[in-house]
Amino acid sequence: MTLSRNAISPVDAVLERQDLWRKRLAREARQERRTYEDGPYPDSSRVVAAKSLLKMLGLFARGVYNASNPLLHTRVLSFDALPSAFDGFRILHLSDFHFDVGFDVFEWTCALLDDIAVDLCVLTGDYRFNQGASCRAVYAGLQRILSVIQSRHGVVGILGNNDVGAMVEPLRAMGVRMLVNEGFALDRDGAAIWVAGVDDPHDYRTSSIPAALGGAPDGAFTVLLAHSPELIERADGCGVDLYLCGHTHGGQVCLPGIGPLFLNTRCERRYCAGTWRFGKMQGFTTTGLGASTLPVRYNCSPEAAIIELRVQNSSQASECYTF
Ligand SMILES: [Fe+2]
Predict the structure, then answer these.
(1) How far is the CA of 157 from the centre of ligand 1 (A)?
(2) Rounded CA gap, 195 and 88, in Å?
(3) Range of the domain at 98
(4) CATH number at residue 157
(5) How many domains does the chain have?
(6) Coil, strand or helix at 53
(7) Inside any domain, residue 203
(8) This prediction's pTM
(9) Cα of 245 to ligand 1 centre, how many Å?
(10) Is residue 144 in a domain?
(11) Rounded to the nearest whole angstrom, what is the distance from the C-alpha of residue 230 to the centroid of ligand 1?
(12) Residue 313 C-alpha to ligand 1 middle, in angstroms?
């Protein structure tokens, strides 16, 4: 196997992964001093005030309803470099569950995904929300969702900025192939693409695209999973073909005529929701399934997405379907 276009050796990739992993765990140790293993995570005064205000304005119930009704979108993306064996390959993209925010995100996700069969399922992080919160809700919710996912090549996941390194092994035990600055060749009918995943680029800043692409054959069609869209420029420079991410929630609260109030990302707005292009790369930023801080959404639906890959010259052009 030849070295990838970023020219990092397998040994350097291992060393970089180890170094970044130590950096993440050290920061977690500082951040997660308080843990709430045995009880509900307490609402902060800011959350209590925001909830009260929305209730007073008569908007809270509507926001919870919006957040509880996800859509399933199918996006068709065409590529020159896609091996013909992958024409029609379907990737189910789920993100930002935030299972501990306090509503049954797994129940409506299961209902949405019932009877959907795909080639690959990818999870782009933020299974948890609250710092120091128990991971029990995460494991129970994810287990329930995994039980309905029908994916020919399994489920691949990465960590988000609200997750902790301690989740990696339990998620692997559930059958999720967790990628922490690493990747693998996915074979189909004698051809292969490279599926890579990086650690969180937003808070921990422990992502390494060169390490995730280390070992990829030169010129391989590459799908990169990153928690946020903050690595777009670097990914395009490394020759990534498709970039899948979440984190922004599409704003979660969007005002008519104004758009999202917060995107919590160091990135231009046009890359913070939906499909986009950067250089030669195409990407998709999902609005995610859960909610952060409060279980509400306004003018920004939660979503699951199916990304259907097509060879550029095949009969189907880029399209989007919503169910
Ligand atoms: Fe996030």
Answers:
(1) 14
(2) 17
(3) 44-313
(4) 3.60.21.10
(5) 1
(6) helix
(7) yes
(8) 0.92
(9) 10
(10) yes
(11) 11
(12) 36
Ligand 1 midpoint to CA 228 (Å): 7
Name the β-bridge partners of 193: 186
- Are residues 89 and 119 in contact, defined by beta-carbon separation less than 8 angstroms? yes
Mean pLDDT of the chain: 90
Ligand 1: centre distance to CA 319 (Å):
27
User: What's the length of the chain?
Assistant: 323
290 located within any domain: yes
Q: What count of Cα atoms within 13 Å lies in the side-chain half-sphere of residue 266?
A: 7
How many angstroms does the Cα of residue 155 sit away from the middle of ligand 1? 19
Confidence (pLDDT) at 6: 59
What is the distance between the alpha carbons of residues 285 and 269, in angstroms, rounded to a whole number? 11
| Å from CA of 294 to ligand 1 middle | 14
Percent of the chain with pLDDT over 70: 91
| Residue-wise pLDDT tens digits, 213-256 | 988 998 899 999 999 999 999 999 999 999 999 999 999 988 88
Q: Is residue 116 part of a domain?
A: yes
Query: Each residue of 50-70: pLDDT tens digit?
Result: 888 889 988 999 999 999 999
Distance 114 CA to ligand 1 centre (A): 26
Distance 127 CA to ligand 1 centre (A): 9
